[in-house]
Amino acid sequence: MTDATAETPSNEELAKQIKELSPWHMGIQINDDLNTGMVIAENGEIIVREDDKNDGISLLQLRNGFLKQIDAVYPDGVEDKTFLDCACNAGGYGFWLRERGLKHGIGFDVREHWIKQAQFVQKHRTSGPTDQLEFKISDLYDLPKLNLAPVDITMFKGIFYHLPDPITGMKLAADLTKEHFILNTSIVWGEEDGYMKYGIESRELLMSGVHGLRWFPTGPKVLAQTLKWMGFEHTKLLFCMQIDKANEGRVEIHAARTKGFLDNLPGEYI
Ligand SMILES: C[S@@+](CC[C@H](N)C(=O)[O-])C[C@H]1O[C@@H](n2cnc3c(N)ncnc32)[C@H](O)[C@@H]1O
């Protein structure tokens, strides 16, 4: 079922490697005992989700919520589907889709740090299949250079607001997507929906973009209209919420080219 058959390192050795590859953002189950969302202290003690020991990077366990959405849209699994994960980080979504039979997935991220994590998971995960997945270091804007075949499902999460030209960037991914586009992004909270507001960010921080300039949408409407213009006529808002009473929020929209495709997904068409 997995690639991790040739040699099976001990949990102690795997935990050491998880620590060496830290900080992690994605909690991915490796085997019955180990999850990458564990910060391992010097004395070997396992500390789960303690952000101040994780270089300030949030450690998230997102598998179950994601698979609930996938199961709603694809009750028979995704055995005939292909997947593209833009800014894939440690590649969690691809591994979780493989648990539902995904035919093939490709994930890319601009930072080697994250791709090394994805490759570690691919090598050592026994909690689910890890074949039929590829991970590459690439800037989103270089996506055409990867010469990918169109895919059925695309994940565009945590990347829109790290781009100097998010419309061009998102269109590169949307044009490669045959059916289902998942957009999850930070937004500015408290402004009239329909605009984008610029920001400046570090080019070096592990979770940031690499271009310095960034744009935050002001709400779901501007995003839904953009997706419709890209050919995804049917847009469903899963949530739009304020974060910690700050002027920041988070939005998730699933978009489809075909009417009715997202009917079983909880949310509201917008
Ligand atoms: C906020 S994290 C989101 C990670 C993941 N998609 C998730 O939802 O958990 C932002 C990710 O985008 C990557 N990234 C930033 N700018 C990028 C670019 N221009 N092209 C590809 N990846 C980029 C970062 O390296 C980082 O892994």
Report what the structure shows:
By secondary structure, the chain is an alpha/beta fold. The chain has one domain: Vaccinia Virus protein VP39 (Rossmann fold, 3-Layer(aba) Sandwich). It has helices spanning 11-20, 63-73, 92-98, 112-124, 166-174, 220-229, and strands at residues 38-40, 46-48, 82-86, 104-109, 133-137, 151-157, 177-188, 196-200, 213-217, 234-242, 248-256, 268-269. The strands form three sheets. An eight-stranded mixed beta sheet has the order 5-4-3-6-7-11-10-12. A two-stranded antiparallel ribbon has the order 1-2. Helix 2 (63-73) crosses helix 3 (92-98). The chain starts with 10 loop residues before the first helix and ends with a strand. The model has no long low-confidence stretch (mean pLDDT 93). It binds S-adenosylmethionine. S-adenosylmethionine binds at residues 25-26, 87, 89, 109-111, 114, 139-140, 157-159, 162, 207, 209-210.
